Amino acid sequence: MRGARSVRIALAAAASTIIALTAIWRGVLNQQRNPAVSPHRVEIATIPNTPQAPGPAPAGMIWIPGGEFSMGTEDPTDMVCGGPDSMPDARPIHRVYVNGFWMDATEVTNDQFEQFVAATGYVTIAERKPSQADFPDAPPGNLVPGSVVFKPTVEPVPLNNHLQWWDYVPGANWRHPEGPASNIEQRGKYPVVQIAYADAEAFTEWAKKRLPTEAEWEFAARGGLSAKPYAWGDDLKPGGKWAANIYEGTFPVNDTGDDGFAGIAPVAQFAANGYGLFDVAGNVWEWCSDWYRPDYYQTLATAGGIARNPKGPNDSFDPSEPTIPKHVQRGGSFLCTDQYCTRYMVGTRGKGEPSTASNHLGFRCVKVSTGL
Ligand SMILES: [Ca+2]
Ligand SMILES: [Ca+2]
Ligand SMILES: [Cu+2]
């Protein structure tokens, strides 16, 4: 996995280094429109399983009944507030069935992650010194622990290069989300961030849970609704009110915080979706267990029938960074805006290199059986 790790270090390699990863941001997918995939509207209802939970709910978790649904999204550029990115990787819309499962009602919080670290002594990837063996080309002095942090630009910039607003910050990690000068002392109920994929997995093992598959995540995020662009329905601002912590103002210069929060918010500050899940849109991105490929939905659709409990492709490929395997991320973050990236829309997809964390990336867990 040298390719992947070398990205992180390419980051670590230059002192004021900026990120070359972040699949979450638009890119190459714009060039991948598949003319064979017609954007015809698919309006097939979600058919949930019986909603009855198999037992008492584990603490903080909600029963998601599972069932059959239509996964993916229409081309958002055709929609009001759909943003500039057509996101062909989220098409064709295809039929999927998932079994029922428990899911965390909120993103995993700093308080919860602190319990895990206290119990296990776990050290996150961002806290570890990158090894020379993994990054033979990096000058030794540059092999310092750290992570990726959003940095607003001083003035408006063309939105064609995300390196303008991402920085590699030595000393940034989950306890210091924006760098050494920041901390989480008053942020126990905020989502934990600066979490790499392996960090999230380590937490799930300790908690006797696991990360959701992408299909589980989307079924849950839709909250029982069918074919809606948002987890809460048809409009970005239902009744004129913001429904999620995203980005208002001029990206990436000035976050006005019209939704109540400039930057990250404590969990559960907006209404829950139909299943009782909070922040499935915005606040922080959430890791899924699937590998990312932009053609996976096409593969399932071509196979025909209903995809049952799909777990993602066997390998990863992102044409924008072909040597770097990535896992799926979902839900968008407090940095998403219709000026640039509308991945708070419920059927859209994100992706990220597994060892790369940032201050808008976290996770939530699922669990299949009730017992411990
Ligand atoms: Ca906000
Ligand atoms: Ca979220
Ligand atoms: Cu976004």
Structure report:
13% of the residues lie in helices and 15% in strands. With 372 residues, the protein is α+β, with helices and mostly antiparallel strands. The chain has a single domain (1-372), classed as paralog of FGE (formylglycine-generating enzyme). A 4-stranded mixed β-sheet has the order 1-3-4-11. The chain has a 4-stranded mixed β-sheet with strand order 13-12-10-14. Strands 2-5-15 form a 3-stranded antiparallel β-sheet. The longest helix is centred in the first third of the chain and has 12 residues, at 2-13. It is globular. Residues 1-7 and 9-41 have low confidence and may be disordered. It binds calcium ion (CA) (2 copies) and copper (II) ion (CU). Residues 245-247, 257, 259, 261-262, 334 line the site of one calcium ion.
Number of strands: 15
Distinct ligands, ions and cofactors found in the model: calcium ion, copper (II) ion
| Spatial gap, N to C terminus | 34 Å
Shape assignment: globular
What is the rounded Rg?
Answer: 19 Å
What is the domain tally?
A: 1
Low-confidence stretches: 1-7, 9-41
The residue fraction in helices comes out at 10-25%
Query: For the record, what is the CATH homologous superfamily label?
Result: paralog of FGE (formylglycine-generating enzyme)
What number is the mean pLDDT? 89
Output the CATH topology.
paralog of FGE (formylglycine-generating enzyme)
- Which structural class fits the helix and strand makeup? alpha+beta
Largest sheet: 4 strands, mixed
Number of helices: 5
Main sheet: which strands, in order across?
A: 1-3-4-11
Pattern of helices and strands: HEEEEEHEEHHEEEHEEEEE
What's the architecture in CATH terms? Alpha-Beta Complex
| CATH domain class name | Alpha Beta
Beta-strand share of residues: 5-15%
